Amino acid sequence: MTAERKTSKAPINGITKKPTLRSISESMGLALTTVSRALKNDPAIAQATRDRVQEAAQAVGYMPDRAAQKLRTGKTNVISLILNPHEEILGFGSSLISGLTQSLRGTDYHLNVTPQFHDTPAIEPINYILRNKTADAIVFSRTKPFDERVRLLLENDFPFICHGRTELSTPHPYVDYDNFDFGYQAARRLVEKGRRNIVLFPADSSLTFSQHLQHGFMTAIQESGIAFRIPDDISIYSPADEIRNYCYNAATNKNPPDGYVCGGEVSTLASLAGLTDAEQEIGKDVDIIGKQTSPLLDQIRPKIETIYEDLATAGQMMGTLLQQRLRGEDMSKLNHLQETTLIFDTIKQNK
Amino acid sequence: MTAERKTSKAPINGITKKPTLRSISESMGLALTTVSRALKNDPAIAQATRDRVQEAAQAVGYMPDRAAQKLRTGKTNVISLILNPHEEILGFGSSLISGLTQSLRGTDYHLNVTPQFHDTPAIEPINYILRNKTADAIVFSRTKPFDERVRLLLENDFPFICHGRTELSTPHPYVDYDNFDFGYQAARRLVEKGRRNIVLFPADSSLTFSQHLQHGFMTAIQESGIAFRIPDDISIYSPADEIRNYCYNAATNKNPPDGYVCGGEVSTLASLAGLTDAEQEIGKDVDIIGKQTSPLLDQIRPKIETIYEDLATAGQMMGTLLQQRLRGEDMSKLNHLQETTLIFDTIKQNK
DNA sequence: GTAAATAATTATAACGTTATAAATAACACT
DNA sequence: AGTGTTATTTATAACGTTATAATTATTTAC
Question: Given this model, what pLDDT does residue B66 score?
Answer without folding.
Answer: 96
